[in-house]
Specification:
By secondary structure, this protein is of the alpha+beta class. The chain folds into two domains: about 10-185, DNA methylase specificity domains (Adenine-n6-DNA-methyltransferase TaqI, Chain A, domain 2, Alpha-Beta Complex); about 250-405, Adenine-n6-DNA-methyltransferase TaqI, Chain A, domain 2, CATH 3.90.220.20. Helices cover about 40% and strands about 15% of the residues. It contains 15 helices and 22 strands. The strands form eight sheets. It has a four-stranded antiparallel sheet. The chain is globular.
Length: about 450
């Protein structure tokens, strides 16, 4: 069905846009609903700043938390994969400092539309140039309400309306300042804030259970206080070079051997059956249909719903027998971001790409336990060793089969797996609360 909008010439001049996408009826309708309330421009109620990256893109092992858009998770900042900047760099870039209640917008590329509200346990931080920090300075607007408003379809429509039609999606501070926010009464804003506080609480519970699982694993393996001392050099036999098929110094660092020497292990290939995904080619991608699970879709929390690709039903039917993952199987990334492991908890109609392996553990191995081992320092150290030295990280299936995995008694595996499952349950609850919050925002505005 053909749709169209009739726009006055004066409206074209104000927007400085002539493309039809900008004036889609859906955008105009949502915009009209927002403006039916008392509303304000974001530039009137907030300070907007962009960050920068340390010279050479080199981060610190500790210091001031430094946020990137890949740290955004479920409207919060995920601190599990944090990098840091120095205190000196932080002070030099005072304009882009971050504190609790600040809103962080992804402003460049495919992640545009994603945002995070800085939670209470992050006391300070800084951001890179791909993030816009929005700090609400109007006392009549609750920043948590504003953040959840922009997570709703009313906020997302404003973002997508501006970036549509641009070759390189980008939001500058002037564009962000033109976003409008409904100034609902304080009582209604507080209803939304309560949702954020509950999301924050469930996320803390999830993090607590996962940390307990990691600690129990390391404690059972005798690695609780392990510190791998790094030698300045390693002596390696020629036969070891030939066996590894490499001769870079990074691969033969002593810290890897020192860690594995502390643990009794078995090869991953002896513990699971393994199947590599399939690449149909970008021409097969569709905007709807059956899910095509790519590397960027997989995190240790689950399958991410952002920027998904799909395949038609006919192709899916041909591939599903071999490449559709089943509940209880582990999805393991081998390319780009190798070593991300997630146990599938709900059935999906879709197939995995060639950069992902699906692992089916043997009956005496708990999938959640094994996934945690891969994600722990034991697995990460081997991934770093195997996939290092390349411009684009690539983990070979033969290397993955030889990954050394610790084995613990079944009862201990179950105890660790139970903690991981509790962590996922709390995170799932947080996601459900976020969806409820967005729906509540939309109801308040529509009424």
């Amino acid at each position: 069905m053909i749709t169209y909008s009739i726009i006055k010439k004066s409206q074209l001049g104000g927007a400085l846009r002539l493309d039809a996408e900008y004036y889609q009826p859906e955008y105009l309708s949502l915009f009209s609903i927002i403006k039916s309330h008392k509303s304000k421009l974001l530039s009137e109620v907030a300070e907007i700043a962009y960050g920068t990256t340390p010279e050479g893109g080199i981060f610190e092992q500790s210091g001031v938390p430094f946020f990137r858009s890949q740290n955004f998770s479920n409207i919060l900042v995920d601190t599990s994969d944090m990098v840091f900047c120095s205190e000196k760099f932080h002070k030099q870039n005072n304009k882009s400092t971050v504190r609790p209640g600040d809103l962080l917008f992804a402003a460049v590329g495919a992640t545009i539309g994603e945002l995070a509200i800085v939670q209470d346990d992050i006391k300070k931080g800084n951001i890179n140039q791909n993030i816009a920090r929005v700090r609400i300075i109007d006392g009549k607007l609750d920043p948590y309400f504003v953040g959840l408003f922009f997570a709703s379809r009313f906020g997302q429509s404003q973002i997508q309306r501006l970036v549509t039609g641009n070759a390189q999606p980008y939001l500058n501070s002037e564009q962000i300042g033109q976003f409008i926010v409904p100034a609902l009464d304080v009582k209604k804003q507080r209803e939304i804030t309560e949702y954020f506080l509950r999301i924050q609480k469930q996320t803390e519970i999830s993090r607590k259970f996962y940390t307990e699982a990691e600690s129990l694993l390391l404690e059972e393996l005798g690695l609780k206080d392990f510190e791998g001392k790094e030698n300045l050099f390693s002596i390696v036999n020629l036969s070891n070079l030939e066996k590894a098929g490499r001769m870079d110094a990074e691969y033969f660092q002593s810290k890897f051997n020192n860690l594995l020497a502390k643990v009794k292990t078995e090869k991953l290939g002896d513990l699971v059956s393994m199947k590599k995904g399939f690449e149909p080619g970008a021409d097969a991608y569709q905007e709807s249909g059956k899910l095509f699970i790519r590397v960027s879709s997989v995190s240790k929390e689950g399958i991410i719903g952002k920027d998904q690709k799909y395949l038609n039903d006919e192709l899916y039917q041909k591939l599903k027998k071999d490449f559709e993952p089943k509940v209880g199987e582990i999805l393991l990334t081998k390319d780009a971001t190798p070593g991300v492991a997630y146990v599938l908890k709900e059935s999906v109609e879709g197939v995995i790409c060639g950069g992902i392996l699906k692992l089916k553990p043997k009956e005496d191995i708990e999938p959640e336990f094994l996934a945690l081992c891969i994600s722990s320092v034991i697995g990460k150290s081997q991934v770093k060793r195997d996939a290092g030295g390349s411009v684009i990280a690539h983990w070979k299936p033969e290397q993955i089969k030889n990954l050394q995995m610790p084995i613990l008694p079944k009862a201990t595996q179950q105890k660790i797996a139970d903690l991981v499952r509790k962590s996922h349950e709390a995170r799932k609850k947080a996601k459900e609360l976020l969806e409820e919050a967005k729906q509540k925002v939309e109801e308040l505005i529509e009424k």
